[in-house]
Amino acid sequence: MAAVYSGISFKLKSKTTSWEDKLKLAHFAWISHQCFLPNKEQVLLDWARQSLVSFYKKKLELQEDIVERLWVYVDNILHSKKLQSLLKSGKTINLQISLVKIINERIEEFSLSGSQRNICAILSCCQGILSAPALAVIYTAKPELLVALLSHLCWSACRQPEGAMTAKLFEVVQLALDHYLRLQQQQANPRRVFGEMTSHLFQPCLVLRHLLLGGTWTQASQGQLWQVLSRDLRNKIDAVLRSGVFRHDLLSSYKEELLEQHQESTKMGVLKSLLTPMETVITRLLGPDYVKADLHAVVVASSVSLLYRLFLESYLREENQFLCFQVLPRLFGCLQISHLQEGQMEALTLSDWTTELLAVEQLLNSVATSNIYNVAADRIRHAETQFHFYRRVAELLINHSQASVPAWFRCLKILISLNHLILEPDLDDLLSSAWIDAEVTEFRAKKAQEVLITTVFQTYAKLRQVPQLFQEILGVICRPAAEALRQPLLASGLSMALCACLLELPLSQILDTWSLVLDKFQSLVMPCLQSDTDMALKAVSLSSLLHCIMFNMQSLDNNMPLPIIRRTQCTMERMLKELVKPLLGLLLDLWSPEPEPWQQKVSDSALLLAYTWAQVDTTLSLHCSQYYSLSVFLARTALDSSNLPLLLPGVETELWKKVEKCVAQSRSLSRYCLEQLYLQKVKKTLMRTNSQSKEALQTLRFDTAHILDSGRDCLSQKTVAAWDKQVSTMNESTYPVAHWHLIVSNLTVLIPYLCLNDVRYVATVLLRTLPASKAQGSLTQGEPHVTLEKISTALLHSPLFPEMQSLYSAFLTCIIAKCSSILCSGAHSDLSVISQQLPWLFGKDYHTVVAHWETKLAKVGPEGVEPRGEIAQNFLSMVKSGFPIKLNEEQLQGLLELLEVISALRLDSLAPSYHVHLFFLIFSMAVSTLGHCSCPLALQFLVKCYRLLSGLQRGRNARSVFRVMYVSDVFEVVLTSLLKVSAEFQVREDDPAWLQLLQVSGVFLEQLMQMLIQVKQSLVLNFGKITAFLSRYSKDTSSKELKIQNLRGRQLLLVALTKLCQSLGPCVKERKQLLEAPAALPELLQQAMMQMGAMLQLCLVSGTAGRRLPPVLLSAVPTLLEVDLSQHLREGQPKIAQVVDTDKTVLSHVALYQNIYTQLLEELPALSGSAQSFQAALRFLTLFLLAPELHSKESSVFTSIFYSVRKVLTGPCQQVPAPATRDTEPHLGALLTQMLEAGTTEHFGMVLKSILQGLDVTQAWKSDLQVVLCAIRLLNLLLKCPLNGEKASLLWRSCPQIVTALMLQHREACQEQPVALVVVEPILEVLAVLLRKGEESISNPHHVSLAFNILLAVPLEHLKPREYGSVFLKMHNVLFSILQCHSKVMLKAVPSFLNSFNRLLSSVMHEGRQKDKGSVDDLPVVLECARLVERMYSHIATRAEELTTFSPFLVAQYVTEVQKVTLYPPVKSLLQEGIYLILDLCMERDIQFLRASLQSGARDVFKDLHSDYLKYHKAKHEGEKRYTA
Q1: What is the pLDDT of residue 1427?
Q2: I need a surface site. Which of 39, 899, 1313, 1517 has the fewest CB within 10 A?
Q3: DSSP string covering 205-251, please?
Q4: When comparing pLDDT for 576 and 1109, which is higher?
């Protein structure tokens, strides 16, 4: 045979052998072990290579499919395991350069022409070569081949759309980049590397990186893997560029070129002729032919910021700061906008502007974050070179305003942060184009605008130059402009920025600014108001500015310097006399019956200033006794003898009446301000000593009614407008929202003086403006915009709402009346008959109905003077014969919305009459006929009704219902109605909506019986009637007539019987103990148990054949077993002993219990998906363990239950949601506790062995995640069980093995990508429990210190907010457990403890930093973490004696971390409170040590921190010590 096969090489070279046969022979020769050729692998590879080379050199003609098969053959050889094993064994396989060149040429052809012939196989061959180091040497030995390959690959990736080979292409690019990076690091000649990069790789790398960043190939692979690959490629391209273009040994060349240091140096060597690297880079970057024209500018813009960042990463040092700046103008010059002349804005499209400005932003950000610009050094050493460049950029940005692009605002913000003088020469143009005249509509642009204007305000506030800033603002506002086109001056975000700035300013500067505005108003606006709409609009803008200034300045107090108080008083007097009164006079003099727009705006301005003045005047007079209010002075000198306040001092009542007539035609700002003036007058009147006089009360009623009537017409229609709570943005559409906001915000002041009709009106508006669904009315905390629906929803949920009794009663009146009207509209019989049977539905005057109930309740005394059966009989007869009210879907939907509103009310504190009325109203809804409605809607409606009835019965006056109707009667009506519903509606027995109705109705029935037991009201009579009623129906179900044929009806009866046993069982047991139990109650309980057992058997037979146990049955069985066991227990013995010694009494339903137990063991894993069913199953198994007589002698109950529980815990994580897991954990714990109590030491050893096997690290290597998680959960449960004796000893002897296993599992989980948090979090949780429980039992400190290894490996980066908060909390708990329970170990491992704590501190600072982009939605999570850090600081501080030595290091850690970021104020406040406690431990020498040893930046931060500590913390606590005994 060997002789036959040895001729293969001749046949392969023979011209007579067909190519088909050659390929077959070659394939056979490669795979066959019987073919013997000297150096066979090399021979076959050389044959295939030579064939391909000959074909491509035109020396051989081959068909296309033969060429493809040759490439596939080469590819198969390169990827074969046989070749890999040969290479690993050390055998040399030579790839000829000719093959590599052919591969390069084919890839080049693919990149240029897009020809895809054989490209998949060629790329696969290339991948095979590059992935084997022994083969890849052919490329690394010839760097030019690798450079050419990488260049062709990058161009191929750039120029090819998505296709089948995209993934393979990027895989090869990744391998080529890896090899080239290693080659770069090995190259000693920087000039050669730079030349290769700029000549061949620079342009394709930049284009490819841009396309990757833009997500061009998002569909090439699915999900996260593609994102990881894309990020990895971008990082490798960055590394290649950094190593090739910005090498450290090129620094001198960059210095020579950029700093013009023409020094002759003999040490330059090979670098001497490489003089202009930056010019070379820019030339290649701007080259016109390497990318399509439409992409060129975009690639340049995205590359400029990248190149600058890489330059800084390579060369940024303190001595190179000016060099790093010199690169900036060169790179900035590559952008199109750098060459724009003024007025050439149209040269670029909006898309171009966005791209270019993003690049400028990134460049400026790099400057700001790298501290390249030092103002003093630039001025002294470099003749303000940097300053002049930034000025040029600022002029360019301001001359070419792009308010629709967020990056434009951000660029200006960075410039003003660098140095306010950069923008100060163009401050007026900045304010105009970025704020006052800007047209900003897009949300992101608005946010960027707010950040810019906030920075401007903050900068000038720090410089104490706010008056100069306002001089510019006023100048821009007063310029001639089309005012109607301007947006409101102070929208929500800008107003808040100005407010924050004003609050920090000294009052003298506020007064300067205030005077400036008054001067401008008087000199430029007032003289030109008449008939000039633009001037009238300017007046409104200036008025809103004055309003903001006056409302947000520091208030005067008695400690203020007297000159400031006098100056404030003079300014107030001047404003009233020279501005407010003249404006009101002008308004009245020029008003016409049909006002023009300018007159309306003058009206808005005048009344806004009047309201502002009145409010500020009152506030100042309240807070500063030395401020003499002009209103008091004018009131004393007025001829009017009334002591009551005026709307505005010096403006007579008659004049106000004229103003009100003018304002009545307005539906915007002026009417709102007039309402505010009346409200201010009401508050002033209430502050008077004579506020309860007849005259004062009359005035109060008139004023409050006027406020309400002012906007009555606008609230008649619903509006969806949203208002940002700023007066300057109010218009006709937002006035109704502002008016309603004013009413609701001041209800506590207004309600006492409103007449009954007005209170009803407010209640009606409240009900009408409530949202139809919860989503519409959700009001986010701190949200600036409000709507009618949000305001009404906030009032409805306010804790003050029930305190306003008159409004609360009126609202109940409205909602009850609306419910009654809908119910009456559904009546289908004689209304006069229904009105006698259901009088609460037909009360025209609600107070008459309330009086009826109060009379009825008064008549029914404790002896039961009046028979209570009347209403019950009416209900029962109506329910059985068909309730006279039938509701359709529309009516049902309307009632559902009203019930949603009722559910938001506090139903636990209603007056008895309201309580009874509302109860019977909802009760009537619950028993109404719903046959015409869809099944899901009807079930939803019934669930809502019974849920509300349950809520009512938890109220303070719940027992008042039983003075009208017995519990047994309510029980009978409810069950009769529900049984009819179960027969009418065709719904599956396991439908979630039906099961929810069963649950809710069961809760209501249970509450009724619990209330009956609580009030001890005819227990035997009521329980007897209930039992008899259920007995009658239970007999019906088992009789031949089968009146209740459907399973739903049986489920209802089962729920009722379950609740009866749950209520009656504990009652009988308690009364037995007190020797009070009437003989009838145990008999009734026994009857109920027998009925329940029979019903369970019936449901089990008819409903569960071949199916799982239904939730209703699962909830019932534990109750029956528990009551059954309680009947046989003897007091004073352990439960197990009690049950064993039962005088041979047999439990009632042994076969039923055993049948259920067998089924549960099989179904327990499947039931874990439903928390309620799972809890019931665990409860049954726990009770089953207590009854040994139920246990089978053939198998161990302990073992069976344990293996079933382990199956549950081994189930997939997603099967049991987190909340359900938390709910079921106590039940699992109770079951395990009972198991361990009943089990032997051998049983405990079996549990422990299972845990240790699951924690073995080999499980992680097998990727058997569920087994690991099962072991961790089981350990967690075990640690929470009470253990003693031999079992506890066995556990703690295994502790070292457990801790080590946890550490190894944690290490494996952290090495996965992404990190397996599903394992990490449970490990941290169980570790904390283990450390706490082992305080006395863990003897070896080494095992505790292993916890530090776990903590230091926990990943805290790149987590979602919820994940971050959860991991952080668990880390904190572990650290806290060590600190509290193992303090000696902690003291021996202080460095590890501090390192672990510092990780928490630095991560919370990183997450709590202020971000320019993004929302603050995750701030609550960070605040909670900061609170934990503060708490840890406080616990460390309590260990003063032990940790005093380390307190300076804790402070140094804090200062070092905090200087890197700007924290959100709430986060910073919490962390500072914690570090203050550590500073309490520091002695003076520690403070001196920190001042001397910290670096300059950290030293400044520490100086501020220590100053605040002395000012706020130490002074406060020393003050407190004075009052401490």
Answers
A1: 93
A2: 1313
A3: HHHHHHHHHTTTTTTSS-THHHHHHHHHHHHHHHHHHHHHHS-GGGH
A4: 576
Cα dihedral sign for 922, 923, 927, 929? Answer: negative
In angstroms, the CA 1257 to CA 1306 distance is 9
Whether the per-residue pLDDT at 1223 is higher than 90: the answer is no
Distances (CA, A) of 460 to 44, 419, 467, 509: 80, 11, 9, 11
The tokens for 772 are 């139809």
Asked whether 1417 and 1470 are in contact (CB, 8 A), the reply is no
Which DSSP helix (H) or strand (E) runs through 620?
helix 597-623
How far is the C-alpha of 858 from the C-alpha of 836, rounded, in Å?
20
Phi, psi for residue 929 in degrees, rounded to 5: -80, 130
The pLDDT tens digits of the residues spanning 311-337 come to: 999 998 888 889 999 999 999 999 989
464: alpha, beta or left? (left if phi > 0; alpha if psi -120 to 50): left
The pLDDT tens digits for 150-176 are 999 998 888 776 666 777 888 899 999
Task: Determine the pLDDT at residue 1431.
Answer: 92
Helix locations, 463-580, DSSP H: 466-477, 492-504, 507-520, 533-551, 562-575
Whole-number Å distance between alpha carbons of 320 and 870: 98
Measured in degrees and rounded to the nearest 5, phi and psi for residue 1409 equal -75, 155
Weakest-pLDDT range from 168-182, 485-499, 1511-1525 = 1511-1525
Helix (H, G, I), strand (E, B) or coil at 1282: coil
Give the ranges where 954-1044 is alpha helix by DSSP (H). Answer: 967-984, 992-1015, 1019-1038
The reply to whether omega before 1217 is within 30° of 0 (cis) is no
Instruction: Check: CB of residue 925 under 8 Å from CB of residue 823.
Output: yes
Tokens describing residue 33: 């072990």
Torsion of CA 960, 963, 965, 967, to 10 degrees: 70
Burial of 414 per CB tally in 10 Å (0-12, 13-18, 19+): buried
Task: Name, in order, each residue with C-beta under 8 angstroms of 1413's C-beta and a sequence gap of 6 or more.
Answer: none
Q: Which burial class, exposed, middle or buried, applies to 833 when counting CB atoms under 10 A from its CB (0-12, 13-18, 19+)?
A: exposed
* Four-residue CA torsion sign, 590, 596, 600, 606: negative
pTM: 0.79
Q: Would you say residue 664 has pLDDT above 80?
A: no
Count of Cβ atoms closer than 10 Å to residue 99 Cβ: 20
